[in-house]
Amino acid sequence: WHKEQLKYGLYYSVIKAGTAYIKNRGLVSVGGRPAYLIQTTAFSASVIDSVFKVRDVNYSWLDASTFYSLGYTQSLREGNYKRDEWITFDYDTNSYYGEVQKKGDPREISGVLTGPVLDMLTSLYYVRSQPLQVGKDVVLDIVNREEKYPLVVKVLGKETVKSPAGKFKCIVVE
Fold first, then answer.
1. 3-class DSSP state for residue 11?
2. pLDDT per residue of the chain (174 residues) written in tens, 0 to 9
3. In the chain, which end has fewer C-beta atoms inside a 10 angstrom radius, N or C?
4. Which DSSP helix (H) or strand (E) runs through 124?
5. 19 SS3 class
6. HEC secondary structure over 55-113
7. Which stretch of DSSP H or E encloses residue 152?
């Protein structure tokens, strides 16, 4: 999935409300370590902008050898809601630190790492790298802001999906 780009149409009933992208921007260096730079963007359609304008941009860095997160940034603009946030995961000191700003001054955030972690965006790519077997769950340690929790991905089955692009063998996960 090097340099992969996924495009999603976002709909409210039959009205196209916006577009979202997930892009693998390729390899970059983070602290001397090769990492995949993953970007997501979401934008409301011009017809929706006057009612509820959305301009979201997220970046995550996924270590190319371990497939664990090195950190992420978020810039969310949704209607009147605004949030900026970044976190860096420091595995040498088993800690993470960052900053979040909603209203007013930015607030520092930090915590202890008990092992390698993923953020919500890198977790998508991590799961895709795993040998998924029906009935066997994949459990990930997630850090999202100051919350740390296990994310359980259930591998439910296999099916073939038909689309305009052809037939594809798929794995069903929850």
1. strand
2. 778 999 999 998 999 999 999 999 999 999 999 999 999 999 999 999 999 999 999 999 999 999 999 999 999 999 999 999 999 999 999 999 999 999 889 999 999 999 999 999 999 999 999 999 999 999 999 998 878 999 999 999 999 999 999 999 999 999
3. C
4. helix 120-128
5. strand
6. EEEEEEEEECCCCCEEEEEEEEEECCEEEEEEEEEECCCCEEEEEEECCCCCEEEEEEC
7. strand 147-153
Spell out the residues 6+ positions from residue 71 whose beta carbon is closer than 8 angstroms to its own: 30, 60, 61, 86, 87, 88, 89, 96, 98, 119
The token pair at 157 is 């089955």
Residue 120: DSSP 8-state: H
Q: How many C-beta atoms surround the C-beta of residue 83 within 10 A?
A: 15
- Dihedral over Cα of 62, 63, 68, 74: its sign: negative
Q: How far apart are CA 142 and CA 16, in angstroms?
A: 32
